Each structure stands twice: as C-alpha cells, then as structure tokens.
C-alpha cells in the first residue's frame, strides 16, 4: 500500500475498482464511493441512507406517467419544484457540489451531480432515462433518439427545446450542436467527468493537492481512462514530496509513451531522474 493511502482509502478504492468492472456498474454507488474518499465521515450507514433517500424520492414519482415528455415533466415537478433540487453559480466553487451525499442533503450541486440524482430517481421509477454529456453542461435525456426529450436539472429540470440545447453548446464551445452530443452517456464516463471536475476544482487551490491526487488515482482505477492521467499523478506525487513514487510513475509512463514518441519518453525519464535527485 502506498504510504499516502490510508487503510480506509485502500478499501474504498478496492470497492470502487470492483464496482467499475461490474457487468452493470451502479452509478450511485460509484458516486458515493467518490464522496466517501472526500469525506471521512461518510460511512456505510451514510451511504445506505443516501440510497434510501433516492428510493424514497422514486416512490413519489407518479406511476408510469406516459411518454418521454410526461416523464421529464413529472421529474421536474417532484425534484425541481417540490424538492427544490437545482444549481446556482456559487455551486461551482464548492467541492460539496461534486459529492452525491451532499447534493442529496443540500439539494444543490453541479449539473452532472444533479443529473445523477435525476437519473437515479427516474431509473428507480421505471423511466427511460440517461445522461447526456453536452459540452460544458450535463443534462438528462428521456426516451429513444427519435422522441428524445432533454431536461436541465441545474435549472430545476426545465425541459429544453432544440434551440435551448443549441444555445448551451454554443455557449460552452462556440460550435454547433450535433447528433453525437445527444447520445446516452456511459455511466463510467459520467464518473470520469465527475472526477475531472473535482480535479479541476482542486487545481485552482494548491493547498488541496491531496484532493487532486485522489481524484486522479480513482480515475486510474476505471477500466478506460486517458493515459495522460498517469503523468498527472506523477506530477502530483512529486509536488506532495513523494519523490520516489513520482519518479517511478514517470518511468512507467515513459515506457508507454516510448512506443510512439521516443523524445517525449526521454524527457519523462529526465524528469524522473530530477525527482529522485530531490532526495539528496
């Protein structure tokens, strides 16, 4: 076990990796294991309580209200209007906005975590629901592609017109909306995006490099992840003073990179040597 990982974190990561490799990964459970890594007070009972809250909310959804629009409207009425789940600009400044147990408690969060609440409640109620990873703004979709209805949980579940979705994408990227952006998001891609958000939050707060490190390390436990995350982990380890572990990670990443870019691999090995030299 790495010296910077506690026995509790080691167990959480084992469970996270196991769930991520399940035949049908449980999105809410993965999000709660991320939250438990962030919040040492979130224990098994606390995680179970969140699952029960989601079950309870699902029980308040009208029984099979109809087509995609009826489902979207019913979820907006329950979660957005009656329960007050929505987001504000200030939520982007809080780590809690990326932690499922806090979002369920506070009824505030980032678009992607509010979308997880919508998806988990709707799924339990039998809705044809999935996440839609629009660039810069995560939303939920109901129904098949030809009858798709989009809703924005950050805005209380407001049903989006085609023009609304185009504006969201144009505002985030300056590019037009295309059909590929409307495909259902894989649950593991949702988790990776959440961890990327946590890493981005920590990157602007140098004193929270510990958060950046565990976010990267959990990302690396997903079956598919960007190779560059190994370089990010190496940098964070060196920055935290774990020079040997950081150097080892740089050397390992150099082996991967060397197959396609020998000069880049040599640069990485030089960085590894520099990290080891810091011990002298």
TrEMBL record:
Coiled coil: none
Record domain Protein SirB1 N-terminal: where: 50-196
Highest taxon of the lineage: Bacteria
Assigned protein family: Belongs to the UPF0162 family.
Name of this chain's protein: Tetratricopeptide repeat protein
Species: Streptomyces aureus
């Amino acid at each position: 076990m790495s010296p910077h990982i506690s026995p509790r974190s080691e167990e959480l990561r084992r469970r996270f990796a196991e769930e991520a490799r399940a035949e049908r990964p449980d999105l809410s459970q993965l999000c709660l294991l991320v939250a438990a890594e962030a919040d040492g007070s979130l224990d098994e009972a606390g995680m179970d309580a969140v699952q029960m809250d989601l079950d309870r909310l699902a029980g308040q959804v009208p029984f099979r209200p109809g087509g995609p629009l009826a489902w979207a409207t019913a979820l907006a009425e329950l979660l957005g209007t009656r329960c007050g789940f929505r987001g504000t600009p200030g939520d982007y400044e809080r780590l809690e906005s990326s932690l499922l147990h806090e979002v369920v408690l506070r009824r505030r969060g980032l678009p992607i975590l509010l979308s997880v609440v919508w998806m988990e409640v709707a799924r339990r109620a039998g809705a044809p629901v999935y996440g839609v990873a629009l660039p810069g703004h995560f939303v939920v979709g109901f129904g098949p592609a030809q009858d798709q209805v989009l809703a924005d949980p950050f805005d209380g579940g407001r049903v989006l017109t085609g023009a609304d979705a185009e504006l969201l994408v144009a505002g985030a990227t300056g590019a037009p909306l295309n059909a590929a952006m409307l495909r259902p998001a894989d649950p593991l891609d949702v988790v990776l995006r959440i961890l990327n958000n946590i890493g981005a939050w920590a990157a602007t707060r140098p004193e929270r490099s510990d958060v950046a490190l565990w976010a990267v390390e959990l990302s690396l436990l997903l079956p598919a992840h960007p190779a560059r995350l190994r370089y990010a982990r190496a940098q964070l380890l060196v920055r935290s003073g774990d020079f040997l572990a950081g150097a080892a990670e740089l050397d390992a990443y150099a082996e991967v990179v060397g197959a396609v870019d020998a000069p880049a691999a040599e640069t990485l090995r030089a960085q590894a040597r520099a990290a080891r030299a810091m011990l002298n």
